[in-house]
Structures are given as C-alpha cells and as structure tokens.
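ingest -> validate -> predict -> emit
validate: passed (alphabet ok, no gaps, 184 aa)
predict: started
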Amino acid sequence: EARMARVALVTGGTRGIGKAIVQRLKEDGLQVAAGYSGNTEAAEATAQAIRGAGGAAAACAFDLADPESVRALIDSAVAGFGGVDLLFNVGSDMSLLRADTDVVDIDFEVWDRTMAVTLRGYLASMKHALPLMLSRGGGAIVNMSSAAAFIGEPTRPAYATAKAGIGALTRHVASRWGREGIRC
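emit:
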C-alpha cells in the first residue's frame, strides 16, 4: 500500500523565509498548509502557485498569539490533508521591532505581544500538533529562532528573549518525545 504524501504545516508560511520554506516543502513532495496573518491576497497567491505547479497547498488565516486560532489552523490542516507530519514554526510580529527598544523604555504591551506570538504561539502549535504526530507514529518539528537569541544587542530585548526561549522549548520537546518518534 502506498503511503499518503506527508503533510507539513508552516506557521507564518506566506512571506519571506516562511514562503521559501513552503515552496521547498512542496518541491520535496509534501502537502502544505500555510498559516498566515494579514495579507490574504499574498497568502492565497502562494497557495495557488503551489497548486498550479501540481502540488497540494492551502492558506489558512490565524493568529499565532491566540491558542484557539492555532488549534483551528491545525484542525484545518487535518481536515484538508488528513493529519500533520511536519510542523515548521516561523513566526514573529516583526511590526514590533521599532518599539522593542530596551529594558528601560519598552512598553509592556510590546513585551507581552512578542512573548504571546513567539513563545506562546510556538507552544500552542506544538501542544496541538504533537498528539496528531504521535498518532501517526512520529513526526518532525522545526522551530525557527534567530541569532538575536545569542548575540546581545542594545535593542530588541523582547525579540531576543522570545527567540532564546524557543531553544528551551525545542530541547524540552526533543528530550520528552524523541523516543516516541518526534524529532524537534
């Protein structure tokens, strides 16, 4: 019996790095669900280009900072493609970078939104995707971080802290579920 095509879910998969990841996964033969926030036309254009090249792709609106929205994104990947084998988290609210000043001047709203999108969003996507992957015998999770997690810059403390936290979440998932077929 032929195995069905593997399914990838990419959060933030319709612009920049995320868009390139979606296109590469399609080239590798995966069915791709790409989550997006914001530009609906760009998201649908990315999905349409993949479908036009013979691939399977869907663009799904969601908010990485909202765990229920993340759950709906994952549910939509399951409904459209039957499951999730690969989760690729590549999301940040880049509109906040100018306001991510330093620990003295930063507004707590900027800090909280950065943590909600990056840390809570990655946590929510893994929380909802892991049981699906385990039920399919395993899977892979890639959590995009940034060199900002290691450099130590005079600005962007929220962004750097959130990106550093991704490393801890990734190591936790790898050590907890690695023996059960989850690569993270």
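The longest strand covers residues 31-36.
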